[in-house]
Design brief:
alpha/beta, binds adenosine monophosphate, binds magnesium ion, Molybdopterin biosynthesis moeA protein, domain 3, Molybdenum Cofactor Biosythetic Enzyme, Chain A, 28 strands, elongated, Molybdopterin biosynthesis moea protein, domain 2
Protein backbone atom coordinates (compact mmCIF):
# COMPACT_ATOMS: atom_id res chain seq x y z
CA UNK A 1 0.00 0.00 0.00
CA UNK A 2 1.42 3.40 -0.99
CA UNK A 3 0.64 6.83 0.40
CA UNK A 4 -1.72 8.91 -1.68
CA UNK A 5 0.99 11.57 -2.20
CA UNK A 6 3.40 8.92 -3.54
CA UNK A 7 0.75 7.40 -5.79
CA UNK A 8 -0.11 10.84 -7.16
CA UNK A 9 3.57 11.62 -7.75
CA UNK A 10 3.98 8.33 -9.61
CA UNK A 11 0.98 9.12 -11.78
CA UNK A 12 2.04 12.70 -12.51
CA UNK A 13 5.65 11.82 -13.21
CA UNK A 14 4.46 9.39 -15.89
CA UNK A 15 2.43 12.01 -17.75
CA UNK A 16 3.57 12.54 -21.33
CA UNK A 17 3.01 15.65 -23.42
CA UNK A 18 0.35 15.41 -26.09
CA UNK A 19 0.45 17.12 -29.47
CA UNK A 20 -0.91 20.57 -30.24
CA UNK A 21 -3.55 21.86 -32.60
CA UNK A 22 -5.16 25.14 -33.61
CA UNK A 23 -8.84 25.62 -32.87
CA UNK A 24 -11.36 28.39 -33.46
CA UNK A 25 -11.97 31.05 -30.85
CA UNK A 26 -15.23 29.54 -29.51
CA UNK A 27 -13.86 25.98 -29.51
CA UNK A 28 -10.92 27.11 -27.40
CA UNK A 29 -13.05 27.48 -24.23
CA UNK A 30 -11.72 25.11 -21.55
CA UNK A 31 -8.70 24.10 -23.62
CA UNK A 32 -5.12 24.47 -22.40
CA UNK A 33 -3.21 27.19 -24.26
CA UNK A 34 -0.03 25.80 -25.82
CA UNK A 35 1.66 29.09 -26.80
CA UNK A 36 2.52 32.43 -25.21
CA UNK A 37 0.47 35.18 -26.79
CA UNK A 38 1.47 38.81 -27.24
CA UNK A 39 -0.64 41.81 -28.07
CA UNK A 40 -0.47 42.99 -31.68
CA UNK A 41 -1.62 46.50 -30.75
CA UNK A 42 -1.88 49.06 -27.97
CA UNK A 43 -5.11 48.89 -25.96
CA UNK A 44 -6.80 51.23 -26.15
CA UNK A 45 -5.28 51.96 -29.56
CA UNK A 46 -5.97 55.73 -29.22
CA UNK A 47 -6.88 58.16 -26.44
CA UNK A 48 -10.50 57.24 -25.92
CA UNK A 49 -13.37 58.98 -24.19
CA UNK A 50 -14.65 57.07 -21.16
CA UNK A 51 -17.96 58.96 -21.08
CA UNK A 52 -20.53 60.71 -23.24
CA UNK A 53 -19.82 64.44 -22.96
CA UNK A 54 -17.67 67.26 -24.28
CA UNK A 55 -13.95 66.98 -25.02
CA UNK A 56 -12.27 70.23 -23.98
CA UNK A 57 -9.16 71.85 -22.55
CA UNK A 58 -8.53 71.77 -18.81
CA UNK A 59 -7.03 75.25 -19.20
CA UNK A 60 -10.48 76.53 -20.20
CA UNK A 61 -12.02 75.29 -16.97
CA UNK A 62 -11.55 77.09 -13.66
CA UNK A 63 -9.63 75.11 -10.99
CA UNK A 64 -12.83 74.32 -9.27
CA UNK A 65 -16.27 75.05 -10.55
CA UNK A 66 -17.78 74.75 -7.13
CA UNK A 67 -18.87 78.20 -6.04
CA UNK A 68 -17.76 79.76 -9.36
CA UNK A 69 -19.63 82.95 -10.13
CA UNK A 70 -20.52 82.10 -13.69
CA UNK A 71 -20.54 78.79 -15.54
CA UNK A 72 -17.96 78.48 -18.34
CA UNK A 73 -19.37 78.66 -21.86
CA UNK A 74 -17.67 76.79 -24.72
CA UNK A 75 -18.25 76.65 -28.49
CA UNK A 76 -19.07 73.15 -29.83
CA UNK A 77 -17.11 72.63 -33.08
CA UNK A 78 -18.10 69.05 -34.03
CA UNK A 79 -19.74 65.84 -32.86
CA UNK A 80 -17.50 62.74 -32.66
CA UNK A 81 -19.28 59.36 -32.70
CA UNK A 82 -17.38 56.17 -31.74
CA UNK A 83 -15.46 54.80 -34.72
CA UNK A 84 -14.99 58.16 -36.49
CA UNK A 85 -11.74 60.13 -36.69
CA UNK A 86 -12.17 63.69 -35.31
CA UNK A 87 -11.80 66.40 -37.95
CA UNK A 88 -11.24 69.48 -35.79
CA UNK A 89 -8.35 70.47 -33.51
CA UNK A 90 -9.61 72.38 -30.49
CA UNK A 91 -8.68 75.99 -30.03
CA UNK A 92 -9.04 77.78 -26.67
CA UNK A 93 -12.70 78.21 -25.77
CA UNK A 94 -13.81 75.31 -28.00
CA UNK A 95 -15.04 71.79 -27.32
CA UNK A 96 -16.30 68.76 -29.30
CA UNK A 97 -19.31 66.71 -28.39
CA UNK A 98 -17.99 63.16 -27.96
CA UNK A 99 -19.46 59.69 -27.37
CA UNK A 100 -18.10 56.96 -25.10
CA UNK A 101 -15.41 54.99 -26.96
CA UNK A 102 -14.74 57.74 -29.51
CA UNK A 103 -11.29 59.13 -30.28
CA UNK A 104 -10.44 62.26 -28.27
CA UNK A 105 -9.66 65.17 -30.66
CA UNK A 106 -6.30 66.92 -30.85
CA UNK A 107 -6.08 69.77 -28.37
CA UNK A 108 -8.42 68.19 -25.81
CA UNK A 109 -7.11 66.87 -22.51
CA UNK A 110 -10.32 66.08 -20.66
CA UNK A 111 -13.94 65.13 -21.25
CA UNK A 112 -16.70 66.74 -19.20
CA UNK A 113 -19.64 64.42 -18.70
CA UNK A 114 -22.84 65.44 -20.47
CA UNK A 115 -24.59 65.37 -17.08
CA UNK A 116 -22.36 68.29 -15.96
CA UNK A 117 -23.26 70.52 -18.94
CA UNK A 118 -26.16 72.45 -20.32
CA UNK A 119 -26.97 73.45 -23.90
CA UNK A 120 -27.21 77.24 -23.94
CA UNK A 121 -27.23 78.01 -27.69
CA UNK A 122 -27.14 76.23 -31.04
CA UNK A 123 -23.39 75.50 -30.77
CA UNK A 124 -22.85 76.62 -27.21
CA UNK A 125 -22.73 74.69 -23.98
CA UNK A 126 -22.06 75.78 -20.48
CA UNK A 127 -20.37 73.65 -17.90
CA UNK A 128 -22.49 73.63 -14.79
CA UNK A 129 -20.50 71.47 -12.45
CA UNK A 130 -16.80 70.88 -11.99
CA UNK A 131 -15.31 67.41 -12.12
CA UNK A 132 -11.74 66.44 -11.37
CA UNK A 133 -11.84 63.32 -13.59
CA UNK A 134 -10.29 63.59 -17.04
CA UNK A 135 -12.48 60.76 -18.35
CA UNK A 136 -9.91 59.73 -20.96
CA UNK A 137 -8.57 56.17 -21.33
CA UNK A 138 -4.97 56.77 -22.40
CA UNK A 139 -3.59 54.93 -25.45
CA UNK A 140 -1.87 51.71 -24.31
CA UNK A 141 -2.94 51.94 -20.67
CA UNK A 142 -4.40 48.40 -20.66
CA UNK A 143 -1.66 46.83 -22.74
CA UNK A 144 1.05 47.80 -25.22
CA UNK A 145 1.85 46.15 -28.54
CA UNK A 146 4.28 43.30 -27.79
CA UNK A 147 3.10 42.77 -24.19
CA UNK A 148 2.75 39.13 -23.07
CA UNK A 149 -0.98 38.87 -22.44
CA UNK A 150 -1.68 35.13 -22.13
CA UNK A 151 0.74 32.52 -20.92
CA UNK A 152 1.14 28.97 -22.18
CA UNK A 153 -0.43 26.47 -19.77
CA UNK A 154 -3.55 28.40 -18.76
CA UNK A 155 -6.99 26.87 -19.14
CA UNK A 156 -8.99 29.19 -21.39
CA UNK A 157 -11.93 30.86 -19.61
CA UNK A 158 -14.51 33.31 -20.98
CA UNK A 159 -12.28 36.20 -19.79
CA UNK A 160 -9.40 34.72 -21.81
CA UNK A 161 -11.68 34.50 -24.84
CA UNK A 162 -12.18 38.28 -24.55
CA UNK A 163 -8.41 38.78 -24.47
CA UNK A 164 -7.90 36.42 -27.44
CA UNK A 165 -10.54 38.30 -29.41
CA UNK A 166 -8.98 41.64 -28.42
CA UNK A 167 -5.60 40.71 -29.87
CA UNK A 168 -7.04 38.97 -32.92
CA UNK A 169 -5.84 35.50 -31.87
CA UNK A 170 -8.75 33.73 -33.55
CA UNK A 171 -6.98 30.37 -33.94
CA UNK A 172 -5.09 29.80 -30.69
CA UNK A 173 -2.69 26.87 -30.40
CA UNK A 174 -3.98 24.46 -27.73
CA UNK A 175 -3.04 20.99 -26.52
CA UNK A 176 -4.79 18.06 -28.14
CA UNK A 177 -7.38 16.41 -25.94
CA UNK A 178 -6.33 13.07 -24.49
CA UNK A 179 -8.47 10.17 -25.69
CA UNK A 180 -9.83 8.35 -22.65
CA UNK A 181 -11.34 4.88 -23.07
CA UNK A 182 -13.82 3.80 -20.41
CA UNK A 183 -14.69 0.20 -19.55
CA UNK A 184 -17.03 -1.00 -16.81
CA UNK A 185 -16.56 -4.50 -15.49
CA UNK A 186 -19.07 -6.63 -13.64
CA UNK A 187 -21.57 -9.39 -14.45
CA UNK A 188 -24.15 -7.61 -12.26
CA UNK A 189 -24.28 -4.50 -14.48
CA UNK A 190 -26.91 -3.44 -16.99
CA UNK A 191 -26.97 -0.15 -18.89
CA UNK A 192 -28.99 2.74 -17.38
CA UNK A 193 -31.80 2.50 -19.93
CA UNK A 194 -32.56 -1.08 -18.88
CA UNK A 195 -34.50 -2.30 -15.85
CA UNK A 196 -32.11 -4.34 -13.70
CA UNK A 197 -33.15 -7.93 -13.01
CA UNK A 198 -32.85 -9.53 -9.60
CA UNK A 199 -29.23 -9.27 -8.36
CA UNK A 200 -28.38 -6.70 -11.03
CA UNK A 201 -27.67 -2.93 -10.81
CA UNK A 202 -27.38 -0.17 -13.35
CA UNK A 203 -23.98 0.83 -14.66
CA UNK A 204 -23.53 4.35 -13.32
CA UNK A 205 -19.73 4.54 -13.24
CA UNK A 206 -19.14 4.56 -16.98
CA UNK A 207 -21.56 7.43 -17.51
CA UNK A 208 -20.23 9.37 -14.56
CA UNK A 209 -16.65 8.92 -15.79
CA UNK A 210 -17.65 9.81 -19.33
CA UNK A 211 -19.08 13.08 -17.98
CA UNK A 212 -16.04 13.73 -15.77
CA UNK A 213 -13.72 13.22 -18.75
CA UNK A 214 -15.82 15.46 -20.95
CA UNK A 215 -15.90 18.23 -18.34
CA UNK A 216 -12.08 18.44 -18.12
CA UNK A 217 -12.38 18.68 -21.20
CA UNK A 218 -10.86 15.48 -22.64
CA UNK A 219 -12.22 13.04 -25.23
CA UNK A 220 -14.11 10.08 -23.76
CA UNK A 221 -14.73 6.84 -25.67
CA UNK A 222 -17.05 4.34 -24.03
CA UNK A 223 -16.08 0.71 -24.56
CA UNK A 224 -19.03 -0.96 -22.85
CA UNK A 225 -19.39 -3.42 -19.99
CA UNK A 226 -16.85 -6.22 -19.85
CA UNK A 227 -17.90 -9.44 -18.17
CA UNK A 228 -16.04 -10.78 -15.14
CA UNK A 229 -14.19 -13.14 -17.40
CA UNK A 230 -10.44 -13.04 -18.06
CA UNK A 231 -10.36 -13.37 -21.87
CA UNK A 232 -13.25 -10.93 -22.42
CA UNK A 233 -11.68 -8.40 -20.12
CA UNK A 234 -8.33 -8.80 -21.85
CA UNK A 235 -9.78 -8.14 -25.29
CA UNK A 236 -11.74 -5.10 -24.03
CA UNK A 237 -8.53 -3.69 -22.50
CA UNK A 238 -6.53 -4.32 -25.68
CA UNK A 239 -9.08 -2.57 -27.87
CA UNK A 240 -9.38 0.40 -25.52
CA UNK A 241 -5.60 0.75 -25.19
CA UNK A 242 -5.14 0.61 -28.94
CA UNK A 243 -7.54 3.52 -29.49
CA UNK A 244 -6.87 5.82 -26.52
CA UNK A 245 -4.11 7.54 -24.56
CA UNK A 246 -5.58 6.54 -21.21
CA UNK A 247 -7.99 3.77 -20.21
CA UNK A 248 -10.23 3.93 -17.16
CA UNK A 249 -11.61 0.65 -15.90
CA UNK A 250 -14.00 0.38 -12.99
CA UNK A 251 -14.57 -2.65 -10.85
CA UNK A 252 -12.72 -5.92 -10.57
CA UNK A 253 -9.71 -4.53 -8.74
CA UNK A 254 -10.27 -5.82 -5.20
CA UNK A 255 -9.83 -9.21 -3.57
CA UNK A 256 -12.94 -11.08 -4.82
CA UNK A 257 -12.84 -14.33 -6.79
CA UNK A 258 -13.88 -12.44 -9.92
CA UNK A 259 -11.58 -9.43 -9.55
CA UNK A 260 -9.37 -10.12 -12.54
CA UNK A 261 -8.06 -6.68 -13.45
CA UNK A 262 -4.55 -6.71 -11.90
CA UNK A 263 -3.85 -10.23 -13.17
CA UNK A 264 -5.02 -9.39 -16.68
CA UNK A 265 -2.90 -6.24 -16.68
CA UNK A 266 0.16 -8.32 -15.88
CA UNK A 267 -0.74 -10.87 -18.52
CA UNK A 268 -1.12 -8.03 -21.05
CA UNK A 269 2.37 -6.73 -20.30
CA UNK A 270 1.11 -3.58 -18.58
CA UNK A 271 3.62 -2.52 -15.96
CA UNK A 272 1.76 -2.06 -12.65
CA UNK A 273 3.13 1.01 -10.85
CA UNK A 274 0.96 0.60 -7.74
CA UNK A 275 -2.12 -1.40 -6.81
CA UNK A 276 -3.24 -0.18 -3.42
CA UNK A 277 -3.36 3.33 -1.92
CA UNK A 278 -3.78 4.34 1.75
CA UNK A 279 -6.98 6.25 1.10
CA UNK A 280 -10.63 5.89 2.01
CA UNK A 281 -12.45 5.39 -0.34
CA UNK A 282 -10.44 4.06 -3.25
CA UNK A 283 -7.88 1.74 -1.65
CA UNK A 284 -7.63 -0.93 -4.39
CA UNK A 285 -6.82 1.56 -7.19
CA UNK A 286 -4.35 0.21 -9.76
CA UNK A 287 -2.21 2.25 -12.14
CA UNK A 288 -0.23 0.80 -15.01
CA UNK A 289 1.60 1.78 -18.15
CA UNK A 290 2.43 0.06 -21.41
CA UNK A 291 4.48 2.26 -23.74
CA UNK A 292 2.72 5.60 -23.88
CA UNK A 293 -0.69 4.25 -22.89
CA UNK A 294 -1.91 4.32 -19.31
CA UNK A 295 -4.50 2.35 -17.43
CA UNK A 296 -6.27 3.22 -14.20
CA UNK A 297 -8.15 0.36 -12.57
CA UNK A 298 -10.62 2.19 -10.32
CA UNK A 299 -12.70 0.43 -7.67
CA UNK A 300 -16.27 -0.34 -8.75
CA UNK A 301 -17.88 1.53 -5.91
CA UNK A 302 -19.31 4.67 -7.46
CA UNK A 303 -17.94 7.09 -4.87
CA UNK A 304 -14.46 5.59 -5.18
CA UNK A 305 -14.38 6.02 -8.94
CA UNK A 306 -15.76 9.56 -8.64
CA UNK A 307 -13.27 10.70 -5.99
CA UNK A 308 -10.27 8.96 -7.55
CA UNK A 309 -11.03 10.60 -10.86
CA UNK A 310 -11.16 14.05 -9.23
CA UNK A 311 -8.07 13.60 -7.07
CA UNK A 312 -5.81 11.62 -9.39
CA UNK A 313 -7.01 11.09 -12.96
CA UNK A 314 -8.00 14.72 -13.56
CA UNK A 315 -4.63 16.22 -12.54
CA UNK A 316 -2.94 13.56 -14.69
CA UNK A 317 -5.00 14.34 -17.80
CA UNK A 318 -4.52 18.06 -17.30
CA UNK A 319 -0.78 17.65 -16.96
CA UNK A 320 -0.73 15.69 -20.23
CA UNK A 321 -2.29 18.79 -21.78
CA UNK A 322 0.39 21.05 -20.29
CA UNK A 323 -1.84 22.67 -17.66
CA UNK A 324 0.42 24.74 -15.45
CA UNK A 325 -1.73 25.37 -12.37
CA UNK A 326 -2.00 23.23 -9.23
CA UNK A 327 -5.55 22.14 -8.36
CA UNK A 328 -7.39 24.73 -6.29
CA UNK A 329 -7.48 23.86 -2.58
CA UNK A 330 -9.45 26.02 -0.16
CA UNK A 331 -8.57 26.54 3.49
CA UNK A 332 -11.89 26.69 5.36
CA UNK A 333 -13.29 26.40 8.85
CA UNK A 334 -14.90 23.10 9.83
CA UNK A 335 -18.63 23.72 10.22
CA UNK A 336 -19.32 20.95 12.77
CA UNK A 337 -17.46 18.56 15.09
CA UNK A 338 -16.50 15.53 13.06
CA UNK A 339 -14.89 12.21 13.88
CA UNK A 340 -14.08 8.84 12.38
CA UNK A 341 -13.11 5.55 13.99
CA UNK A 342 -10.00 4.55 12.09
CA UNK A 343 -7.26 6.87 10.89
CA UNK A 344 -4.86 4.54 9.08
CA UNK A 345 -5.84 5.97 5.68
CA UNK A 346 -6.30 9.45 4.26
CA UNK A 347 -10.03 10.12 4.03
CA UNK A 348 -11.85 12.00 1.29
CA UNK A 349 -15.15 13.28 2.65
CA UNK A 350 -17.95 14.96 0.68
CA UNK A 351 -18.77 18.42 2.06
CA UNK A 352 -20.97 21.39 1.37
CA UNK A 353 -19.03 24.68 1.39
CA UNK A 354 -21.17 27.43 2.89
CA UNK A 355 -20.23 30.83 4.38
CA UNK A 356 -16.53 29.99 4.48
CA UNK A 357 -17.04 26.70 6.32
CA UNK A 358 -17.11 23.02 5.29
CA UNK A 359 -20.03 20.81 6.38
CA UNK A 360 -19.55 17.06 5.89
CA UNK A 361 -22.52 15.36 4.29
CA UNK A 362 -24.09 12.33 5.84
CA UNK A 363 -22.56 9.57 3.83
CA UNK A 364 -22.98 5.82 4.00
CA UNK A 365 -19.75 4.73 2.44
CA UNK A 366 -18.50 4.24 -1.05
CA UNK A 367 -21.69 3.08 -2.75
CA UNK A 368 -23.51 6.28 -1.76
CA UNK A 369 -22.95 8.44 -4.84
CA UNK A 370 -26.03 10.55 -3.98
CA UNK A 371 -23.86 12.24 -1.32
CA UNK A 372 -21.81 13.70 -4.17
CA UNK A 373 -24.90 14.98 -5.88
CA UNK A 374 -25.19 17.57 -3.09
CA UNK A 375 -21.49 18.02 -2.26
CA UNK A 376 -19.52 20.91 -3.70
CA UNK A 377 -16.20 19.95 -2.19
CA UNK A 378 -13.99 17.08 -1.05
CA UNK A 379 -12.47 17.44 2.40
CA UNK A 380 -9.20 15.67 2.99
CA UNK A 381 -8.67 14.14 6.44
CA UNK A 382 -5.06 13.12 7.00
CA UNK A 383 -3.71 9.80 8.29
CA UNK A 384 -3.58 9.90 12.10
CA UNK A 385 -6.47 12.37 12.45
CA UNK A 386 -9.63 10.95 13.99
CA UNK A 387 -11.42 14.15 15.01
CA UNK A 388 -11.79 17.63 13.62
CA UNK A 389 -13.40 20.21 15.87
CA UNK A 390 -15.84 22.82 14.69
CA UNK A 391 -13.86 25.94 13.74
CA UNK A 392 -10.61 24.09 12.98
CA UNK A 393 -8.94 24.80 9.64
CA UNK A 394 -9.46 22.16 6.95
CA UNK A 395 -8.41 21.72 3.32
CA UNK A 396 -11.14 21.28 0.74
CA UNK A 397 -10.93 20.68 -3.01
CA UNK A 398 -13.88 22.44 -4.62
CA UNK A 399 -15.89 20.41 -7.12
P1 LIG B 1 -15.98 -4.28 -7.57
O1 LIG B 1 -14.92 -3.21 -7.48
O2 LIG B 1 -16.09 -4.87 -8.92
O3 LIG B 1 -15.78 -5.29 -6.50
O4 LIG B 1 -17.35 -3.55 -7.28
C1 LIG B 1 -17.58 -2.91 -6.05
C2 LIG B 1 -19.02 -2.46 -5.93
O5 LIG B 1 -19.31 -1.48 -6.88
C3 LIG B 1 -20.03 -3.55 -6.16
O6 LIG B 1 -21.10 -3.34 -5.25
C4 LIG B 1 -20.47 -3.32 -7.57
O7 LIG B 1 -21.75 -3.84 -7.83
C5 LIG B 1 -20.42 -1.84 -7.69
N1 LIG B 1 -20.16 -1.45 -9.06
C6 LIG B 1 -19.19 -1.96 -9.84
N2 LIG B 1 -19.19 -1.41 -11.06
C7 LIG B 1 -20.20 -0.51 -11.07
C8 LIG B 1 -20.71 0.39 -12.04
N3 LIG B 1 -20.18 0.44 -13.26
N4 LIG B 1 -21.76 1.18 -11.70
C9 LIG B 1 -22.28 1.11 -10.46
N5 LIG B 1 -21.84 0.31 -9.50
C10 LIG B 1 -20.81 -0.53 -9.79
MG1 LIG C 1 -17.04 -6.38 -9.86
Amino acid sequence: MVLFEDALNTVLSNAIQLGKERVGLSESLGRILAEDLFSDMDMPPFDKSAVDGYACKIADLPDTMIGAQKPVTLEVVETIPAGIIPQKNLMPGQCSKIMTGAMVPMGADCVVMVEDTEQVGENLISITRGNAAKNICIKGEDMMAGDLVLQKGIQITPAHIAVLAGIGAVNPLVSKLPGVGIISTGDELVEPWLKPGKAQIRNSNAWQLEAQVRSIPAKPAYHGIAADDGPQLRSAIELAMKNNDVVLLTGGVSMGDYDFVPAIMEEAGIEILFKSIAIQPGKPTVFGRRGNTFLFGLPGNPVSSFVLFEMMVKPFLRLMMGYSMAPLVLTLRMGIDFSRRKSTRKSMIPVVIRDGAAYPIEYHGSAHINAYAVANGILVMEIGTTTIQKGEQVHVRPL
